[in-house]
């Protein structure tokens, strides 16, 4: 197993400091028009403004707390395994797949 790339380390750092919200996420290099899909919630957003408004708005509303269980890098993807708890005490098991472009930036995210 090799060391994580700089983009994988940035994603890991965000997940370990997710309580910092969008301000922490902003530190992860992303393409201008990156997309995030959350099929279970019907979310399909593009760009930083929509991610901030829709995704981080929802995370704030449910008072999400993220626990990084594992992170795996393979070729041009970084996959995180998370436990996300909400204000009602429910715990969701989430897998996020981050697709990385040739410039080392996130260009697509799938939260499953």
Walk me through the structure.
This protein has a single domain (6-111), classed as Nuclear Transport Factor 2, Chain: A (Roll). The longest helix has 15 residues, at 47-61. The model has no long low-confidence stretch (mean pLDDT 96). It has 112 residues and is an alpha+beta fold. The protein has helices at 6-16, 21-25, 47-61; strands at 30-38, 43-46, 65-74, 77-85, 91-100, 106-111. It has a six-stranded mixed sheet, covered by helices on one side. Helices cover 28% and strands 43% of the residues.
Q: According to CATH, what is the class?
A: Alpha Beta
Tell me about the biggest sheet? 6 strands, mixed
Coarse structural class: alpha+beta
Low-confidence stretches: none
CATH topology: Nuclear Transport Factor 2, Chain: A
Give the amount of beta strand, in percent: 35-45%
Helix coverage percent: 25-40%
Total strands: 6
Whole-number tally of structural domains: 1
- State the CATH architecture: Roll
Give the H and E element order: HHEEHEEEE
Write down the Rg.
13 Å
Give the oligomer, counting copies of the same chain as homo and different chains as hetero. Answer: single chain
Q: Features of this protein?
A:
112 residues, Nuclear Transport Factor 2, Chain: A, six-stranded mixed sheet, 43% strand
List the helices and strands and how they pair.
Blueprint: H1 6-16, H2 21-25, E1 30-38, E2 43-46, H3 47-61, E3 65-74, E4 77-85, E5 91-100, E6 106-111
Parallel strand pairs: 1-6
Antiparallel strand pairs: 1-2, 3-4, 4-5, 5-6
Summarize the structure.
With 112 residues, the protein is of the alpha+beta class.
């Amino acid at each position: 197993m090799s060391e994580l790339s700089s983009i994988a380390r940035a994603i890991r750092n965000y997940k370990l400091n997710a309580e910092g919200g969008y301000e922490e996420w902003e530190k992860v290099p992303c393409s201008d028009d990156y997309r995030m899909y959350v099929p279970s919630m019907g979310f399909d957003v593009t760009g930083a403004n929509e991610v901030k408004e829709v995704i981080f708005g929802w995370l704030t509303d449910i008072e999400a707390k993220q626990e990084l269980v594992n992170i795996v890098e393979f070729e041009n993807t970084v996959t995180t395994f998370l436990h996300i708890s909400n204000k009602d005490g429910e715990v969701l098991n989430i897998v996020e797949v981050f697709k990385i472009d040739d410039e080392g930036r996130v260009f697509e995210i799938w939260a499953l």
